[in-house]
């Protein structure tokens, strides 16, 4: 059984709807670095291989440039740590993104409909938001997808669908797709309760 099958609904909600994830990597010389990244959560049944993966693990997918410290670290040491934490939540808060099943749809002209100013919406909705008191640290093994493969195109398309505001970065010529298979999770709350999922 995959560890994600044991995740409670509130943890899935955090992973599926957070706008960014903090990605921690470490060089072969044990020098750590942390990056804030756009990402998508990909369950096994939506992966490129659609269940053919012998490890049967859900994944976090993001794009990175090949000239970054993060990329070099992943090539040298594929073990990564991912931190998810939403300081504010509201069901329709503008800084949150849509999941793959909730992303915006094109209008009759084929153009994706844009939301009003995110900052304005955030300020208007802030008073209605509640503090979210949980953070999750996921650990996994990262692999770089061949940038010329159909698999890379598949995940880039998913990233663009969920993160259209990052299109310049995702479609850059020197960007590669990184897929992190989730191996474990540790969830903590503001009352110092911690739970581990393996």
TrEMBL record:
It holds the Pfam family PNPOx_N. InterPro entries: PMP_oxidase-like, Pyridox_Oxase_N, Split_barrel_FMN-bd. It comes from the Eukaryota. One of its GO terms (cellular component) is cytoplasm. Residues 8-94 form the Pyridoxamine 5'-phosphate oxidase N-terminal domain. This is Pyridoxamine 5'-phosphate oxidase N-terminal domain-containing protein.
């Amino acid at each position: 059984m995959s560890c994600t099958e044991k995740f409670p609904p509130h943890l899935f909600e955090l992973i599926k709807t957070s706008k960014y994830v903090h990605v921690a990597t470490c060089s072969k010389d044990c020098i750590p670095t942390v990056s804030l990244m756009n990402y998508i959560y990909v369950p096994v049944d939506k992966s490129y291989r659609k269940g053919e993966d012998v490890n049967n693990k859900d994944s976090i997918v993001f794009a990175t440039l090949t000239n970054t410290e993060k990329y070099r670290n992943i090539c040298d040491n594929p073990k990564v740590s991912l931190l998810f934490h939403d300081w504010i939540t509201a069901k329709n808060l503008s800084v949150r993104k849509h999941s793959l099943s909730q992303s915006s749809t094109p209008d009759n002209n084929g153009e994706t409909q844009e939301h009003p100013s995110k900052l304005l919406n955030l300020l208007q909705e802030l008073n209605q938001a509640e503090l979210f008191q949980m953070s999750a640290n996921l650990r996994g093994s990262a692999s770089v997808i061949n940038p010329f493969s159909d698999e890379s195109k598949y995940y880039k398309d998913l990233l663009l669908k969920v993160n259209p505001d990052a299109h310049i970065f995702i479609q850059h010529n020197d960007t590669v797709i990184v897929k992190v298979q989730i191996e474990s999770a540790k969830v903590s709350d503001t009352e110092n309760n911690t739970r581990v999922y393996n």
